[in-house]
Amino acid sequence: MARADLARAIDHTFLKPEGRREDVERAVAEAEELGVYSVCVSPSELPLALPAGSVLQVTAVCGFPSGKHRSAVKAAEAEFAVAQGADEIDMVIDVGAALDGRIDAVEADIRAVRAAVPAPTVLKVIIESAALDDETIVAVCGAAEAAGADFVKTSTGFHPAGGATVHAVEVMRRAVGDRLAIKASGGIRSREDAEAMLRAGASRLGLSSSRAVLAGGAGSAGY
């Protein structure tokens, strides 16, 4: 895969709780240098100062990382992030609701955020695939589609169950067909891993070690 094509599939991610403003500024500069699609940050870091003429998109997370926020809170957080310059929102579902089989509640949660940030804002729904069985992954993907999401996304990268796997991406692709896009994130630390996720059906990757992955090496552990 051409380096430039791989770069354009990356959301360069900086979500460390201990991150300082200078760290965020460094992440933005690195994202610009590498030619990735977007930079993904915590909503408290917005607005970002992008260079004049930049085509870099800005992604903010919502309900992150637990998903255990009231839908109204997630909706307000997403709406404010867009007002502060976010082009895309990556929201976390209530994983416990999914595990309980309360898929209607998951769909309602997503609908609340979608209503707060309508198109053209891109809405990605983080399902924590490593914590779900295949049947539940399919059900949650269906809820995301019914609620009007643009993407389903594997993971926050913070859950102890783990991050993205090729198997989960394949299950998600079968569930949504070509109707939704898929973002793989969490534990993708090498170019081999990244390309495997894309072959499995992902079209976007959440990476914190973008430079190392693009160089063909292995990045550090993290989101």
UniProtKB/TrEMBL annotation:
**Which superkingdom is the protein from?**
Bacteria
Record bears the keyword Cell division: no
> So, what pathway does this thing act in?
Carbohydrate degradation; 2-deoxy-D-ribose 1-phosphate degradation; D-glyceraldehyde 3-phosphate and acetaldehyde from 2-deoxy-alpha-D-ribose 1-phosphate: step 2/2
Output the Gene Ontology terms for molecular function: deoxyribose-phosphate aldolase activity
* Reaction(s) the record says it catalyses: 2-deoxy-D-ribose 5-phosphate = D-glyceraldehyde 3-phosphate + acetaldehyde
Top enzyme category: lyase
Entry GO CC: cytoplasm
Q: Which Pfam families would you find in this protein's record?
A: DeoC
Q: What is its main location?
A: cytoplasm
Keywords (alphabetical) are: Cytoplasm, Lyase, Schiff base
Location of the protein in the cell: Cytoplasm
The record's EC number reads: 4.1.2.4
Give an example GO biological process.
2-deoxyribose 1-phosphate catabolic process
Catalytic machinery residues: D90 (proton donor/acceptor), K153 (schiff-base intermediate with acetaldehyde), K183 (proton donor/acceptor)
Task: Say which family it is in.
Answer: Belongs to the DeoC/FbaB aldolase family. DeoC type 1 subfamily.
Q: Which HAMAP family match?
A: DeoC_type1
Q: What does this protein do?
A: Catalyzes a reversible aldol reaction between acetaldehyde and D-glyceraldehyde 3-phosphate to generate 2-deoxy-D-ribose 5-phosphate.
Full protein name: Deoxyribose-phosphate aldolase
- Source organism: Leucobacter chromiiresistens
Q: Which gene encodes it?
A: deoC
